[in-house]
């Protein structure tokens, strides 16, 4: 493991052209530099996502340019835009169909909380009600730089994930579910309105 | 002794087999020791853009669709062959001209047949 190597020895070796690494680092290096997003956009944030993937902002510099049209090949779900209640079951089902390890970026105010459409009868108040989100990007819509920043944050997260031990990554834990219940269309709202296993909002306590 | 000139094909086949097998074996070992498998009903379900799929994915198309295949050949594939034929028309030898005429005749036969069968009429 990497933390068993003396840092001084390591940098000394690196100066001589010998690069010492561990299985974990190598694995995470490969993973973080080839995050393939699922190809779908929901609203105006998707336009910014497309701009990020195109040549001017060039997501390919971070290894994320291969947008996959099938969840079977995707590592990352960028929820880019307003999630309507009509669309939410499909999003959750697509997330369920992605293989582990999988990550979610909640892009823009709408995907975080419903944003300017929060009062709308048909708008889901945040995708984190049903699936676990790794990185939130505020903005309406966030600029491509913000998405790149979120991408780099996700890379940092992947880089720090442990393969073994007590603090190993969640997806390596056999008890951690890979699928989450898909909400159904109820009479007035989605049933259930949130998944209590996933959605744990901060409680506001008034004195 | 000179090696057999075809031996590189054997080497090529060997490399072509080993090259994909190594990552597959690594992935299998990885799954065996690190990644707990997490299959599920939805994960294994047929992918249909996130919508629940209706029926089975292993369906057979009705054989009646052969009509569309024939008409597609006549109107689309034929046109692709006709364009280079038209461009090179003045410089063509007699043999090539006759060959393309035979090709055209075969497809026109199909057109006549489809027409006489009433396939070109709008269904009401």
Describe this structure in words.
The complex is a heterodimer of chains A (207) and B (124). Chain A has 207 residues and is of the alpha/beta class. In chain A, the strands form two sheets. A three-stranded parallel β-sheet of chain A has the order 1-2-3. The N and C termini of chain A lie far apart (49 Å). The model of chain A has no long low-confidence stretch (mean pLDDT 90). Chain B is mainly alpha-helical and 124 residues long. The mean pLDDT of chain B is 87. Classes of the chains: A alpha/beta (207), B mainly alpha (124).
Uncertain regions spanning at least 5 consecutive residues of chain B:
none
What global shape of chain B is seen?
A: flat
Largest sheet of chain A: 3 strands, parallel
Q: Structural class of the helix and strand makeup of chain B?
A: mainly alpha
Tell me which protein chains meet in the greatest interface and how many residues each side has.
A-B, 22 and 14 residues
Sheet with most strands of chain B: none
Q: For the terminal residues of chain B, how far apart are their CA atoms?
A: 78 Å
Q: Topology as H/E string of chain B? A: HHH
Give a quick summary of the entry.
Chain A has 207 residues and is α/β, with parallel strands linked by helices.
Question: What is the strand and helix layout of this fold?
Answer:
The complex is a heterodimer of chains A (207) and B (124).
Chain A lengths: L6 H9 L7 H10 L11 H10 L22 E5 L7 H10 L5 E5 H6 L21 E3 L6 H16 L24 E2 L4 E2 L16
Parallel strand pairs in A: 1-2, 2-3
Antiparallel strand pairs in A: 4-5
Chain B lengths: L6 H27 L32 H22 L6 H23 L8
List its salient traits.
heterodimer; A: 207 residues; alpha/beta; two-stranded antiparallel ribbon; 6 helices; 29% helix; B: 124 residues; mainly alpha; 3 helices; 0% strand; flat
